Every structure is written in C-alpha cells, then in structure tokens.
C-alpha cells in the first residue's frame, strides 16, 4: 500500500467519523513534518497552513497543533462530508466551514459550489457543448489557465473532458475556460465562433443576478427573448473607400461595462483595422455580418436590432432599403425584416464624449423615464420646414426635449448643419422623412408612428410602417422614414473601453 493510499484511507475514516487515535496521531506527525501530500489534501477542507505558524481552519486561526486545533480539523473534515451540518454549538470553524474565505497564501474556494444556481446553469451550458473537435492539449492549457494560480494545492489533474468540466464548474471558472478556448488561434474559426457565443451565454448567466442594469430598452421584449444587436460602423477611408467594423451582442442585458458581450464579426486578420470596401459594396458586407450573426444566434429566441454608425453627411443613406439574402425569397429588404437604428459616427469621437457625454447621459435618463409612455409628441421638438433653418435656434429649442421630429425632407446641403445642432444638443432620438410625398399630411403620419405604441417600441413601429409600404405599389411614408436612436450606454467596444473606470 502506497503512502498516498494510506493517507486517503485515514481521511476517509475521519470524514465518516470512524477515525482512531492512531489515525489522528499519524496525521499530526505528517502535518508537523510538512508532508506535501497531507498539506495538499487539507486544502479540500478549508484548512491552510501558512508559511509561519498560523493554522487557518474555517475562520479561526490557531498558533499551534494542540488538542483544540486537532478537534477543529476533524470537525472541518467531517463538515465537508455532511456529518456536522446541523451543528449549532462548537467553535466557529465547525459552524462556518462552508464560507468562501481568501487568505494571503491560498484562495479557498467554496466547496459547496455545486449547489449554487449559477453553477447549475453553467453545468447545463457546458454539458450541451461539443468539445470533441478541440485538441486535448489545447483543452488542458485552457483548463490550467482558467483555474486560480494556487489551484495546484488540490492536486487537480484533468485526465478527460468530463473531469475537466466538473473541476472547472466547481471552481466557478466556466466563463474563463470557454473564453480562453475561444481566443486560441489553433482552433478552427467556426468552432471559436461557437465558443464565443457560449462564453456570451455564460457571462449573461453570471450577471443574471445583477440588478443594476435591466435590459437597455427596459424589458420591451417578450419574456425569454434575447435583445440582440448587430452594431456596424462605416468610416471614410482613402481613395473613396470605406472602413467597416461590426460586432454582435447576443443579449444586451449584461452590465454596461462588460465588454465580453461584444463578439467581433470580422475574421481575426481583419479585426485590427476593419474591412475596406467601396460604398456600393457596403450592403453586401453588412449582409455577410448578418449571416454570421444569425449563425451565432442559431437555436435562440431573439429580436435582432441593427445599429449602423454613419458620418453625419451620410446619415441620409437608405440603409433600411438595402437588400439581404433570404433562404426562401432569395432577396428581401433589410428594414422590413429588422428594426434599423441609425447612429452618428461623431458620437464615438473621444473629444466629443469628453465634452458632451455628461449631457447625453442626462437626456438619456429623460428617455428612460418615458419609455413606456405612448403620447410623447410634446417631448419632441417639431421642425416643419428647412428653408429658414437656424442651427443655433434649433439647438436652443432642443433643450429639455428627448427627441426631434422632422416632418419635411432635409435638403442634402443642410443635413450636416442639422446634425451639428442635434449633436451639440445631445438629442437621443430623431425621426424624419427623407422625401416629401405629395398630397400626404406628413405631420399627422409621423405623429401616428410616434403614438402608435409606447416609446420603447418606436423602432418596431417604424419597421411595421416599412413592411406596410413594401406590400403596396404607390408611394408610402414607410419607404422614406429614418430613425436615429442614440443610447450612450451602447457604443462600440473600443470606445467603451476608454470610458471604463480603472478597476471595473
């Protein structure tokens, strides 16, 4: 019988309450001799022997291995096995042995982690995942990297994926494990995309108890439906080319400053700068981003909203009229299938944010206060004509307003000044028509869209108007409606990183 097996039998007898005086004597001898196997085993029972004389058992510190310390050790071992779970008397080591405690030399992990709701959720996610396409050595490396630095004190050795997942779950490191796998360039991109989506779900599970930030649109979606976002940026490049970047947020109910919710939709070699393309090729590229997003959302109930950041002089681009592929109809119009929100690229400029972000937050708070209200027209400044447009006057009129409704088509020459007023006023919502339809009361038509449903559903109301237009042959407002929806808490990850307070 090896020494290791002999020691294990002693621990087993103590766990069951069948230990002898000889067992305790031999155990004490090994402890005093600094036996590494014994010290390693003790870590499982919330027992840590410091580099000095301090002996940590539960939340008690003993200075020497006397009778009291040995009794506390026995109770600690038995507590882990459930023998003294209902103990009301005794010392604090026996009563509080299930607490998670951090010491200078060793991180003690709560051994009852299997019973937590978080762990149950992580276990179900991981058990449904297929890791068979990943080389064992890569799994082993991610396993070791995900565990705490001092995890070796428990002599953990993952020999197969089942054992590895069990240990990872017990240490509550499922997210870290999957995230590391998703970042390993030796794994095929398709598998990494799936791992990124899995990491997103685990992060959402991890933060499900965080009440500090409900979903961005305040639970406007049906229960159980993910609020997903495809976020794209379009910037001017050189030689009449444009630079595109895109990310998917699978569920925007995660805390504001959690950048792990962003999944890049670009290939690894494109992520540093983005994709360069001609303006006419932008719709095709967005269609590729959309296809990749839908693959990552496969099997989930979701509402996908598309947000596109554009320079102000291109904000009149008919993004909602772009064509996308469809498995049945071959080609459909983007804005009929998905709600489209236009965003100002200028709001991603750090100089702009330094100067205006505080005011932007203030106006967004006003939006949040009325999201479930239907009659919000009085909170929208009304711009009826552009012939006598005055930038400074509009900026002043936008004070204390959450939005702007423009019921006449802005001339191309004045769009830039119009959005200068909107940007400096930090107005979060703008709805306008790109074209003046003859014989149509555009004021009444736009007011109907604003009051059709509560404000949190405005995007969907605009989408439905576009859907109605698509079913008709004559001119319809739905062909020309545009919506700007500027949430300061949902920017691109590179910008949000700059806004994150150190330590968050």
Short description:
The protein is α/β, with parallel strands linked by helices and 504 residues long. It contains 18 helices and 15 strands.
Describe this protein's structure:
The chain is α/β, with parallel strands linked by helices. It has helices at residues 3-16, 21-32, 36-42, 67-80, 92-95, 117-127, 136-146, 161-170, 174-182, 189-206, 282-296, 334-337, 350-369, 391-397, 412-425, 442-452, 458-470, 493-499, and strands at 47-49, 55-57, 60-62, 226-236, 241-249, 262-264, 275-278, 302-310, 323-326, 330-333, 340-344, 380-383, 403-406, 429-433, 481-485. The chain has 4 domains: 3-95, no CATH class; 113-206; 226-343, no CATH class; 346-493, no CATH class. The strands form 4 sheets. Strands 4, 5, 6, 7, 8 and 11 form a 6-stranded mixed β-sheet that branches. Strands 12-13-14-15 form a 4-stranded mixed β-sheet, covered by helices on one side. A hairpin with a 2-residue loop joins strand 2 and strand 3 (60-62). The radius of gyration is 30 Å and the shape is elongated.
Topology:
Layout: H1 3-16, H2 21-32, H3 36-42, E1 47-49, E2 55-57, E3 60-62, H4 67-80, H5 92-95, H6 117-127, H7 136-146, H8 161-170, H9 174-182, H10 189-206, E4 226-236, E5 241-249, E6 262-264, E7 275-278, H11 282-296, E8 302-310, E9 323-326, E10 330-333, H12 334-337, E11 340-344, H13 350-369, E12 380-383, H14 391-397, E13 403-406, H15 412-425, E14 429-433, H16 442-452, H17 458-470, E15 481-485, H18 493-499
Parallel strand pairs: 4-8, 8-11, 12-13, 13-14
Antiparallel strand pairs: 1-2, 2-3, 4-5, 5-6, 5-7, 9-10, 14-15
Helix pairs in contact: 1-4, 6-8, 6-10, 7-9, 9-10, 14-15
Domain vWA-MoxR associated protein C-terminal: 267-488
Pfam family, one: EAD10
Domain vWA-MoxR associated protein middle region: 136-231
């Amino acid at each position: 019988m090896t020494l290791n097996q002999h020691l294990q039998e002693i621990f087993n007898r103590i766990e069951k309450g069948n230990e002898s005086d000889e067992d305790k004597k031999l155990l004490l001898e090994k402890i005093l001799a600094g036996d590494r196997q014994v010290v390693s085993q003790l870590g499982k029972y919330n027992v840590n022997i410091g580099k000095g004389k301090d002996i940590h058992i539960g939340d008690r510190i003993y200075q020497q291995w006397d009778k009291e310390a040995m009794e506390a050790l026995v109770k600690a071992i038995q507590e882990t096995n459930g023998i003294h779970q209902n103990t009301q008397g005794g010392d604090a080591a026996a009563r509080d042995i299930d607490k998670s405690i951090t010491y200078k030399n060793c991180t003690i992990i709560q051994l009852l982690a299997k019973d937590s709701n978080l762990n149950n959720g992580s276990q179900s996610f991981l058990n449904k995942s297929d890791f068979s396409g990943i080389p064992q050595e890569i799994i082993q490396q991610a396993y070791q990297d995900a565990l705490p630095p001092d995890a070796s004190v428990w002599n953990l050795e993952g020999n197969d994926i089942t054992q590895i997942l069990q240990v990872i779950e017990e240490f509550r490191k499922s997210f870290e494990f999957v995230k590391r796998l998703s970042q390993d360039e030796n794994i095929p991109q398709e598998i990494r995309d799936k791992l990124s989506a899995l990491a997103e779900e685990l992060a959402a599970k991890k933060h499900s108890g965080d009440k500090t930030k409900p979903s961005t649109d305040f639970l406007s979606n049906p229960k159980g439906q993910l609020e997903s976002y495809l976020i794209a940026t379009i910037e001017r490049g050189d030689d009449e080319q444009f630079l595109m970047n895109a990310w998917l947020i699978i569920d925007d109910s995660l805390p504001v400053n959690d950048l792990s919710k962003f999944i890049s939709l670009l290939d690894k070699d494109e992520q540093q700068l983005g994709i360069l393309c001609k303006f006419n090729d932008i719709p095709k590229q967005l269609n590729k981003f959309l296809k990749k997003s839908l693959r990552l959302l496969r099997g989930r109930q979701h509402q996908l909203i598309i947000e596109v950041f554009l320079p102000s002089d291109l904000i009149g681009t008919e993004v909602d009229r772009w064509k996308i592929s469809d498995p049945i109809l071959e080609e459909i119009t983007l804005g009929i299938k998905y709600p489209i929100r236009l965003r100002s690229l200028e709001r991603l400029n750090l100089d702009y944010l330094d100067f205006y972000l505080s005011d932007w937050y203030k106006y967004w708070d006003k939006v949040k206060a009325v999201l479930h209200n239907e009659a919000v027209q009085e909170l929208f400044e009304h711009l009826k004509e552009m012939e006598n447009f005055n930038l400074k006057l509009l900026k002043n009129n936008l004070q204390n307003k959450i939005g702007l409704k423009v019921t006449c088509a802005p001339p191309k020459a004045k769009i830039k000044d119009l959005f200068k007023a909107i940007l400096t006023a930090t107005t979060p919502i703008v709805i306008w028509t790109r074209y003046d339809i003859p014989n149509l009361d555009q004021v009444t038509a736009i007011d109907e869209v604003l009051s059709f449903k509560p404000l949190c559903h405005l995007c969907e109301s605009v989408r439905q108007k576009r859907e109605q237009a698509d079913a008709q042959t004559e001119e319809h407002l739905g062909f020309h409606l545009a919506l700007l929806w500027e949430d300061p808490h949902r920017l691109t990850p590179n910008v949000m990183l700059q806004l994150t307070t150190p330590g968050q």
